[in-house]
Design goal:
heterodimer, B: 2 domains, diguanylate cyclase activity (chain A), Nucleotide_cyclase (chain A), diguanylate cyclase (chain A), EC 2.7.7.65 (chain A)
Chain lengths: 308, 346
């Protein structure tokens, strides 16, 4: 988060400068109310509101790269903050009515801020739709950040099980089978032992990107565990699934991965186990794919096999 | 193997959990490196362990069971702990631990590798010690508590992956073994199946691997007898005492059919019952759980190796009170003895 916040350092500087400036202006032109005349309920409402807005700004900017959307959101929230803060200062100092700037700062930034924030949110929504299209093969229609694997950024096996459940129900209804491929990198242990786990992780990330490029819209890829990936192909019959299994194993064996430090070429092959179902439980389908994968491994590296 | 009550053990030496005996640059360093590669911050990893990476690199630091457990506990807090344990285990053996690793690298078969693992368990697996039984077809490799405390799931996963990883590395194929874990079913059981290649069960009350006898005795290629015998001579000779829970485990196992009470056990060890209680607590365990573990292991030994029926086992363990035996067995494992045998045993 700190790294991301650094991207917005200029914006933070603006807020940091505004705060002492507003306090200084109030002490110069206003007269203190005295502790007994302060309405603490107002302070709680207005000041607390201002601080919450500041906290939102922090959370949102901390999770976003720089860009138009970030700028708009910052500007909107910043203006709302200025209004609330100025309102709050009034509780501590009596500022003469002749000081027009105070009334202006209290009332004008709020509506402008709300409009700008709304614009920012609309842009954010558009941006999110583009991102979702990019992520659709990883997550489809549901996002659970807790089940995302930190290495490959793919969802894990329990998410796959949920999605299989949904798709199997659809399969029964539409009488079009769901296919499941389990893809396992051959001899991945040796790669980890030879090049280290950090290199193994990098390889898995690269492989994830490669495999995703080979999938269609509507397919879902998850990390099943270790060096095994699960790929769900909804509405896919056996002929098509076998073709895709062949394409994926071919893509892996043609993949020229080079290690990060030495630039050494790592030769890769993957085996694929394939199973399809019309009305089975997700777990049984996964188990059959697992058996098929064992058969594929028996056939030799880089082959694929279908469940009986 | 359970000894009979007449062959009495006299264990008066044990390793204090604060005794520094385990070289930090062995597998603890491997775990630290792995965790750092997976972005676990160093301060969180080494919190309350009294360890500093700069010291470990010098290769002179010895750590105690206590520090080791703390380190594992810190890693176990991490969200990827399950995967880290499996990853760590798969790379742990033969490792880079001097002559010990050379022995594992050149052991002629798994049976001999296991004897190194057992004889140097204070270095290779100080918190969870291995023992194995054989029947005509299978080898049952059991892991018993030597003071794991909270980190048992983590250690059990890592150690089973370690033995499996060694066999896989030396044979170059993927053996199909059975794995029984005492912990409950984790969030992502698939990762275990992928890493351990075979059939995996959870919530079974024991940490055990079951492998075909052929895999135990299958000759491992690429082993050099010269390298092995030289390394064997270089192995450290001074014995490191067992941990207290292990001492108590053996003592109870030798009397499994009529378990001594806490007071009697303390008497055999030459300490008061209160001291024994406190010392076991320092090791992250307590007397009753050791008793339960011993009785469960012994009943599995009777049923699998001696092929006794439920009635005969109840006769030996509970003075013939079958209902009592069933109830105890259900408490340890969550199922009846017959169902356990039918479901989990090959």
């Amino acid at each position: 988060m700190i790294q991301t916040l650094k991207l917005h350092s200029l914006k933070w500087l603006c807020i940091a400068l505004y705060l002492p400036f507003s306090l200084a202006a109030a002490t110069l032109v206003g007269t203190p109310r005295g502790w007994r005349n302060i309405d603490w309920l107002d302070v709680f409402g207005e000041g607390g509101g201002a601080l919450m807005v500041l906290a939102w700004t922090l959370l949102i900017l901390g999770s976003r790269p720089a860009g138009t959307v970030s700028n708009l959101i910052f500007a909107g929230l910043g203006l709302i903050f200025v209004s609330l803060w100025q309102d709050n200062i009034d509780e501590f100092w009596i500022i003469p009515d002749a000081q027009l700037w105070d009334t202006w700062l209290e009332n004008v930034p709020m509506p402008i801020g709300v409009v700008i924030l709304t614009l920012g949110l609309i842009r954010w929504y558009q941006e999110q739709r583009i991102l979702m299209a990019q992520l659709s093969k990883r997550e489809r229609f549901r996002r659970e950040h807790r089940s995302v694997d930190p290495v490959t950024r793919l969802a894990s096996a329990d998410y796959l099980e949920q999605q299989l459940d949904v798709e199997l129900r659809a399969a029964r209804r539409d009488q079009a089978p769901v296919s499941l491929l389990l893809l396992d990198v051959d001899g991945f242990d040796r790669i980890n032992r030879r090049h280290g786990v950090a290199e193994g992780d990098r390889l898995l990330q690269a492989l994830t990107d490669l495999l995703l490029l080979n999938l269609r819209d509507g397919d879902l890829m998850c990390r099943y565990g270790g060096d095994r990936f699960a790929i769900m192909l909804p509405h896919t019959n056996e002929t098509m699934a076998v073709i895709m299994a062949g394409e994926l194993t071919a893509a892996v064996s043609h993949f020229a991965y080079h290690t990060h430090y030495e630039g050494e070429r790592v030769r890769l092959t993957a085996s694929v186990g394939l199973a399809l179902a019309l009305s089975d439980s997700p777990r049984a389908l996964m188990q059959r794919a697992d058996h098929a994968l064992a058969d594929a491994k028996q056939k030799g590296a880089g082959s694929h096999a279908s469940a009986a | 193997m359970p000894r009979q009550p007449d062959t009495d053990v006299q264990p008066h030496h044990w390793r204090s959990p604060d005794e520094r005996h385990l070289p930090a640059h062995f597998h603890p360093a491997l775990l630290i490196e792995l965790a750092q590669a997976r972005d676990v911050p160093e301060h969180r990893l080494l919190r309350h362990t009294g360890l500093f990476t700069d010291d470990i690199v010098k290769g002179k630091v010895l750590i105690s069971d206590h520090q080791y457990r703390r380190l594992l506990d810190n890693v176990q807090q991490h969200c990827q702990a399950e995967e880290l344990a499996l990853l760590w285990g798969r790379q742990m053996l033969p490792g880079h631990y001097g002559p010990l690793s050379t022995c594992l690298q050149h052991a002629p078969n798994l049976a001999e590798a296991l004897t190194y693992l057992h004889d140097y368990r204070h270095d290779l697996c100080p918190l969870l010690f291995p023992q194995w039984w054989r029947d005509s077809q299978w080898c049952y490799l059991l892991w018993a508590d030597g003071g794991t405390g909270r980190v048992r799931p983590f250690v059990a996963r890592a150690m089973m992956a370690a033995v499996y990883g060694l066999a896989r590395y030396r044979t170059g194929r993927t053996p199909e073994w059975h794995f029984l874990f005492s912990q409950r079913r984790p969030a992502n059981p698939a990762a275990h199946e992928v890493s351990l290649g075979g059939r995996v069960w959870f919530g079974t009350g024991v940490d055990m691997m079951i492998l075909p006898l052929n895999d135990l005795n299958e000759p491992w290629l690429d082993s050099s007898t010269t390298a092995l015998s030289v390394a064997r001579h270089q192995l450290p000779r001074e014995p490191v005492p067992e941990s207290l829970p292990e001492v108590v485990y053996h003592l109870l196992m030798a009397r499994a059919e009529a378990l001594p009470s806490l007071e009697e056990t303390a008497g055999i060890l030459g300490m008061s019952a209160a001291s024994l209680k406190r010392r076991l607590r320092d090791c992250g365990t307590h007397f009753q759980s050791l008793c339960d573990e011993v009785r469960l292991h012994y009943s599995l030994y009777l049923s699998q190796v001696l092929r006794l029926g439920t009635e005969a086992i109840a006769e030996r363990l509970c003075n013939g009170d079958r209902a009592n035996f069933r109830r105890s067995f259900r408490r340890w494992t969550g199922m009846t003895p017959a169902r356990y045998r039918q479901w989990l045993m090959p």
